[in-house]
Amino acid sequence: MMTALLTNWRNLKRNPYAVWLGFALIGTALVLLPFVTDAALGRSWVRILDHTLLYIMLALGLNIVVGFAGLLDLGYVAFFAVGAYLYALLASPHFGLHLPFWTLLPLGALVACMFGVLLGAPTLRLRGDYLAIVTLGFGEIIRIFLNNLNTPINITNGPQGINMIDPIMLGEFSLSRTHQVLGITFSSVHNYYYLFLLLTLLVIFISIRLENSRIGRAWVAVREDEVAAQAMGINTRNVKLLAFAMGASFGGVSGGLFAGFQGFVSPESFHLMESIMILCMVVLGGMGHIPGVILGAVLLSMLPEALRYIGPLEEALFGRVIVDPADLRMLLFGLAMVLVMLLRPAGLWPSPVRQREFTRHD
Amino acid sequence: MPPSTEADLLLQATGISKHFGGLAALMDVSLTIRRNEIYGLIGPNGAGKTTLFNLLTGLYRADSGIISFGGINLTGKKPHEVAQAGIARTFQNIRLFANMTALENVMVGRNLRTHAGVFGAILRDKKTRNEEGAIRQRAKELLDYTSIGHHAQMLAKNLSYGDQRRLEIARSLATEPKLLALDEPAAGMNATETAALRQLLESIRHDGVTILLIEHDVKLVMGLCDRVAVLDYGKKIAEGIPAEVRSNPAVIEAYLGGAMA
Q1: How close A218 gets to chain B, by Cα (Å)?
Q2: Is the reported ipTM for this assembly greater than 0.85?
Q3: Closest partner residue to A214 among B95, B121, B157, by Cβ?
Q4: Which fold has domain B1-86+177-261?
Q5: Residue A100 belongs to a domain
Q6: Residues of B in contact with A353 (CB under 8 A)
Q7: Domain that holds residue A186
Q8: Is residue A297 part of a domain?
Q9: Is the CB of residue B117 less than 8 Å from the CB of residue A238?
Q10: Taking CA atoms, what residue in B is nearest to A202?
Q11: Domain locations in chain B as residue ranges
Q12: pLDDT tens-place string over residues A223-278
């Protein structure tokens, strides 16, 4: 039964018409998604969709570092912070600078890249736990800098954060305004959704291309056996730095979009917990497998929001709130993680080759 | 055997010493490998064979001594620079990229002879596509050459032991080495597999690659190698054609233990 389904699926994947039809269906669904969500669940869920797209970009960036190159990075949110603050500083009344989005986006990627190399260079000899500790420290250093760089010269405005950040403008088209196009109303969250979707697709495309390339193979080789990779002539220093830089650039882009979308950034948004959350997305979904990582990002950014309904549910069932929903959320979240890791150690959606290996000996 | 001239020499290691703390792993070892020969390195366990291997391939740095390879000074070079210069190796305890397929393992070996970068990978222009095709093609050829072509899509970790050894050789050959250094390639193989390995090594040599071989299987070494060096307690105690070495009293003592008897 299972095998029959699988062969059917494989045949379907080989049929170009079926593939194009699949793409068309997914594309239509993605285009309609914010309107359906808006109608069914309300505007706040469209905002959650926007955040989910940002998390997908972050998870895919971290996937390059952790999933492909096998470098355990616990400070990844630092690059998100760098991207966000760069956008905030260069497009807000704080310094009176208002650079256009199309310069800020590549600049964010570039500066985050540089920070990636900055983190990568001193940690080249470290692996596993030791690397995790150093990267964790790096993430905290960035956050603490942002928190304290308001004296003697006020650069980051300290814990108050930076306010009134310019919304993203595509030419004259402000994404934060409501627009009427062909009689359809596009509110701010819808506009951002389409921009984020476009950039997420670009990030996915780049990830896939990198994975199936000479560079991608070198990353995986370093992950699998660094000594053997060196002996095969791979310059592991450059390969690791490239992984850090590429991963960081995705984080930087996502950070810039976040700043423009929220209109406000503060060090609060870049806690260690965020890094861990992004890492969980990668691990839970299936390290190194792009569709799995996307699934992980979608689940983990939506699940906590869905669990918010537990409070009202408790009230409806018992007449009062018995367990604080916030506590219960983390409890259920932790339980889910433990279960997934026990039952599906390779992640929810591991790469087909690996999955075959996991079930091979059954 | 005619006296070797400068042009015949492929690898020349002179006065190599290496200490690990207080332990002298290698003391003033010199050896020369000629082009297109199969050179065997034998010795009891702990004699320093693998240490010497790791020094030649850049994994360790020698305390003293000079390594020259085809006229290039390799002393103190990093492993990937050594590989670039044309020395490829296998490992005593097999080190494949376990979660990559056999084909991908060999494709990684092509890395240092190819060039595509990040932009090539993302844009996948004609040049990159052609290069990628050539990498795949060459990797397939090498898998066939080492008779494991039918396992191309299997994960390296699921190959049988003998096939893993072969895959390591295929991956090394993908780097286009002038010298292929094999660390106990026949370890754990049965007689049939060893015979097949011997055939493979002979055809590799026939195709113009020089081979340096560490091996415990004395029969294989004596039958296959043109010249053999013997290490014992970090010193070279004999070197020459197999027949000479076999009858060398120092070698017999090292292997059978003289003093105790």
Answers
A1: 6
A2: yes
A3: B121
A4: Rossmann fold (3.40.50)
A5: yes
A6: 101, 155
A7: 32-272
A8: no
A9: no
A10: B122
A11: 1-86+177-261, 97-175
A12: 999 999 999 999 999 999 999 999 999 999 999 999 999 999 999 999 898 999 99
